[in-house]
UniProtKB/TrEMBL annotation:
<dbReference type="GO" id="GO:0004181">
    <property type="term" value="F:metallocarboxypeptidase activity"/>
</dbReference>
<feature type="domain" description="Peptidase M14">
    <location>
        <begin position="94"/>
        <end position="393"/>
    </location>
</feature>
<keyword id="KW-0862">Zinc</keyword>
<dbReference type="InterPro" id="IPR003146">
    <property type="entry name" value="M14A_act_pep"/>
</dbReference>
<keyword id="KW-0645">Protease</keyword>
<dbReference type="GO" id="GO:0005615">
    <property type="term" value="C:extracellular space"/>
</dbReference>
<keyword id="KW-0482">Metalloprotease</keyword>
<keyword id="KW-0732">Signal</keyword>
<protein>
    <submittedName>
        <fullName>Carboxypeptidase A1</fullName>
    </submittedName>
</protein>
<dbReference type="GO" id="GO:0006508">
    <property type="term" value="P:proteolysis"/>
</dbReference>
<keyword id="KW-0121">Carboxypeptidase</keyword>
<dbReference type="InterPro" id="IPR036990">
    <property type="entry name" value="M14A-like_propep"/>
</dbReference>
<keyword id="KW-0479">Metal-binding</keyword>
<dbReference type="Pfam" id="PF02244">
    <property type="entry name" value="Propep_M14"/>
</dbReference>
<comment type="similarity">
    <text>Belongs to the peptidase M14 family.</text>
</comment>
<keyword id="KW-0378">Hydrolase</keyword>
<dbReference type="GO" id="GO:0008270">
    <property type="term" value="F:zinc ion binding"/>
</dbReference>
Length: 394
């Protein structure tokens, strides 16, 4: 398996995506016009054909990973516990398996009952609990709420790592860190650290690049194509632009809106929190983007000025520690048009007027294989950006 970086400067986005689907090339990110390369995962029998097509069309490219399996194997070694005593411990400087993620959030809730409560908001297709970690001081029934979901795309491991870091810091630094204490006193945080547990487990056991859920589609009667893209499955222009009705495709929108247990769990938490939600964040990787609605049209939302103001504060704070630069804009304008996302659903259907999707590091050097020495810095800077944006809410 090989991974190529293709220059986006010369790509017509829709044409490139269409041709990639025809050739069954896995696009890790979509073509844009901001200079960020498109990363493509190529099966061995497609390498020559794709390279010839790119060369013929005078599109610049280079090879990011000549042997992706070697990268995957190396990643497993790096994420292994350093010694036997650490076998069950959560390491914020590494990627952690599903059981360790669950153990962390269970421990945080059990050991800090005055500020944390763990609740099950749904079950995955394979019957794994989907947890929401509620973080707040004192009684919180009427507090304004912040909602975040991470890991809806299984292969985006840095999203889960960031969610775990965030809840740990909010809980363990309450009463110690002034910013954390003020925000936890002001808001009730609701964080789904792992929104797609089945897919995440599958990336550790079978296919590191798996993106979707692990459900079975009613229209795929042979059962050969598993899962749907949970972030194309929300009831907002379902199966519209930027999605696919084919169960084998990475962006398969599902048989119907909310066909996936995972998207229903996110929706149900939104509904339960109702008008108390003051801001919604969907955490993804990669490309270093801070995005507002809409994904379905390039038209900007009515309160884009306010979305931009709060987002710019977040982007500025995020860059302070390590100098990481993010781009800010609406989903359709900054990356691509895509229907059925949680952010558009939150904004349009649940009337949550501060809603963002974040794409974490990097901009295409490593893609989903963000190296170990960047995991903790990514978590730290994202935390800083999120907290600053929440402080900026009016």
């Amino acid at each position: 398996m090989q991974t190529a970086r293709v220059s986006s400067r010369y790509c017509d986005g829709r044409s490139f995506s269409f041709q990639s689907k025809r050739m069954e090339v896995d696009l890790w990110n979509e073509p844009r016009y901001s200079g960020i390369p498109v990363m493509t995962h190529l099966k061995p029998d497609l390498v020559d054909a794709v390279e010839q097509a790119l060369t013929a069309n005078k599109i610049d490219f280079d090879v990011a990973f000549h042997d992706l399996q070697t990268v995957i194997d190396s990643e497993k070694v790096m994420n292994a516990p350093s010694d036997a005593s650490q076998a069950g411990a959560f390491d914020f400087g590494k990627y952690n398996e599903y059981d360790k993620v669950v153990a962390l959030i269970e421990s945080l809730a059990a050991n800090n009952p005055s500020v944390a409560k763990l609740e099950t908001v749904g079950k995955s297709y394979e019957n794994r609990p989907i947890y929401n970690l509620k973080i707040s001081s004192g009684k919180s029934d009427n507090k304004p709420a912040i909602m975040m979901e991470c890991g809806v795309h299984a292969r985006e491991w840095s999203s889960v790592a960031t969610g775990a870091y965030l809840v740990n810091k909010l809980i363990t630094q309450y009463g110690k860190d002034a910013q954390v204490t003020k925000l936890v006193d002001t808001y009730e945080f609701n964080v789904i650290v792992e929104s797609n547990p089945d897919g995440y487990v599958y990336t550790w056991t079978n296919d590191r690049l798996w993106r979707k859920t692990r459900s079975r589609s009613s229209i795929d009667w042979l059962g050969v194509c598993r899962g749907a893209d949970a972030n194309r499955n929300f009831d907002i222009e379902h199966c519209g632009v930027g999605t696919s009705r084919k169960p084998c495709d990475e962006i398969y929108c599902g048989d119907r809106p909310f066909s996936e247990n995972e998207s229903r769990a996110i929706r149900d938490l939104m509904i339960a929190l109702g008008s108390r939600i003051k801001a919604y964040f969907s955490i993804h990787a990669f490309s270093q983007l801070w995005m507002t609605p809409y994904g379905t049209t390039k038209k900007l939302p009515p309160n884009y000025t306010e979305l931009s103001r709060v987002g710019q504060i977040g982007v500025a704070a995020l860059s302070k520690k390590y100098g990481t630069q993010y781009s800010l804009g609406s989903i359709a304008n900054i990356i691509y048009e895509a229907a059925g996302s949680s952010v558009d659903y939150a904004y349009v259907k649940q009337d949550i007027k501060i809603a963002y999707a974040l794409e974490l590091r990097d901009t295409g050097r490593y893609g989903f294989f963000l190296p170990q020495n960047q995991i903790l810095p990514t978590c730290e800077e994202t935390f800083d950006g999120l907290m600053a944006s929440i402080e900026a809410l009016q």
